[in-house]
Amino acid sequence: MFKLNTAQNEFYENEKNHISNVFNSTYLNREAFMKKIWLTSGVSVVLAGCFVFLLFFYKGQQPSPSPSPDGGTQGTSAGAEEIVNNSCISCHGENLQGGAGPAINKVGAKYDKSEIEDIINNGKNGMPAGVISNEEAAIVAEWLSKKK
Known about the structure:
The protein has five helices and no strands. By secondary structure, it is mainly alpha-helical.
């Protein structure tokens, strides 16, 4: 076999020690890395679960309409406007002037409350049925019937 001189032997020993140190530190770094992966994965799953809960189940604080002196409830028109803004303006336009659907900013001149409610609940022409609940339809129909 080959005999190594002292310089070569020293180089060989240094390289052997270096490789051993790299392996040990890589192993330790890999173990720490895996712990971080598990920790961040767990935190991500918990945050995703919270987001799904908020997205589908949390309704927030719901304001209750206060009774008015005439026996009705105050805030019905505000509630109707909110329903319309959430469900109707995408087709009927921001000011109900029309868009993909017809203008309904003066629909009260053409239909009464019950007819408007029937159209909302059952649909007509291009309007699909059941866009909003029956309770919301009654509120919106009352509000729209006053638009003349």
